[in-house]
Write a structure and sequence with these properties.
This protein folds into three domains: 181 residues, ABC-type transport auxiliary lipoprotein component (Rossmann fold); 92 residues, Roll (Endonuclease I-creI); 83 residues, Alpha-Beta Plaits (2-Layer Sandwich), CATH 3.30.70. Helix content is 40%, strand content 31%. β6 and β7 form a beta hairpin. α1 crosses α10 and α2 packs across α6. The N and C termini lie far apart (65 Å).
Length: 379
């Protein structure tokens, strides 16, 4: 919206949207089942809460880092487990022959609180969420201002800064501008094209947002309202992971200048972008932190393209719904999956079992840590 159009909206009190109602906040919680033991009910419950938080930590921080720094983690985080558990339900409780209470609970653990406290410990170079390549891009709809509008740049900057502080690798404005220019050439299914372009640039997460705002006149103050709607995608699969809608407002004097009104809109847009980013972060934590599952990497080398497509489709539909396609090029497919396999040997057997009916012949080339490399079996 131009300065002139904004000025007239101030004078005429044009309302583009209805007065926004507050939206319910998203729950910042993860449900975890855990067991505890103690000589009293209270001790067993505290032990179960500690184990619930430790279990959630295990999906954020790799096991080697946890083992090397367990004492610090224990002192700083696990001892405060009750503070992270917002609610719990006792599933079962019994007393053994030695008089010890055994208890199993279903607990609600605050996700981002644990994540932020983990990152505050300087011993950690990274968590499993760090360094994820994230792209934030504006998509104008019929109600939204053009990309050049100050409100858009304010929202974009606020979202980028939010995720940068959370240690994501955010694509810079130059790349986003290039993608927007490419998108302008496509009239059909621009969303699918955007996902393809983001994947081609190596994005692991894509946030597409639209923005709208309006001015509500009053005496002696005006109110600038801003609304942001966003979609979170996994570009590697094209999967829609989450949607979010947030609203914000900024009060300013009716005697302000046009520049002052634009500044109020920009501030409201920046605030709504921060709130929206926080909501999406909770979904990102959910996506990469599959409770009770471990992270593994599968690599398939020297396969025909048709076989790789079969492998990817079967892996997704046959037992590993939580997976990401990291790369597909020159006969090689690399996947990130989450599974509850206890050992890499168990996982290898499961992969071969799932692919048995596809006609794809494979043999293990390398098996170490959480990485399995398969090659095409010789006929």
């Amino acid at each position: 919206m131009s300065s002139r159009a904004l000025f007239f909206s101030l004078l005429l009190g044009v309302l583009f949207l209805g007065v926004p109602q507050s939206l319910p906040a998203q729950q910042d919680e993860s449900r975890v089942e855990a067991s505890g033991m103690g000589n009293t009910d209270d001790v067993a419950l505290k032990d179960a809460m500690r184990n619930a938080v430790e279990q959630f930590l295990g999906v954020l921080v790799d096991s080697k880092t946890m083992a090397e720094n367990f004492q610090i983690v224990s002192d700083k985080i696990l001892t405060a487990s009750q503070g992270y558990v917002t609610d719990y339900e006792i599933i079962s409780q019994s007393r053994d022959a030695d008089g010890m209470v055994n208890m199993r609970i279903k607990a609600r653990v605050q996700k981002t609180a644990v994540l932020d406290d983990v990152r505050s410990l300087k011993i950690f170079q990274s968590t499993k969420l760090d360094n994820k390549r994230l792209m934030v891009i504006y998509s104008q709809d019929t109600e939204g201002p053009p990309e050049s509008d100050p409100s858009v740049s304010s929202a974009q900057t606020a979202a980028n800064d939010f995720f940068l502080k959370k240690r994501f690798r955010v694509f810079d404005e130059t790349v986003v501008r290039e993608i927007n220019q490419e998108l302008s050439q496509y009239q059909t299914d621009p969303e699918a094209r955007l996902i393809q372009l983001a994947k081609g640039r190596g994005a692991e997460l894509l946030i597409k947002f639209n923005l709208s705002y309006y001015i509500k006149p009053g005496d002696p103050f005006y109110i600038a309202y801003s609304r942001m709607q966003s979609k979170l995608f996994d570009p590697t699969t094209g999967r829609l992971l989450a949607t979010s809608e947030n609203r914000s407002k900024q009060v300013f004097s009716q005697n302000t200048t046009v520049a002052g009104a634009e500044d109020a809109v920009a501030k409201a847009s920046a605030k709504v972008a921060q709130d929206n980013s926080q909501s999406l972060l909770e979904n990102i934590v959910d996506f990469f932190s599959v409770t009770g599952a471990k992270e593994f990497f599968l690599v398939f080398q020297d396969f025909p393209e048709g076989d790789l497509e079969k492998i990817s489709s079967t892996i997704q539909n046959g037992g590993f719904p939580q997976f990401r396609e990291l790369s597909l090029q020159a006969g090689t497919l690399e996947l990130e999956i989450f599974d509850d396999a206890q050992t890499i040997s168990d996982l290898r057997k499961k992969v071969k079992q799932i692919l048995r009916g596809t006609g794809v012949e494979l043999e293990t080339l390398e098996s170490s840590g959480n990485r399995l490399i398969f090659k095409r079996a010789k006929s």
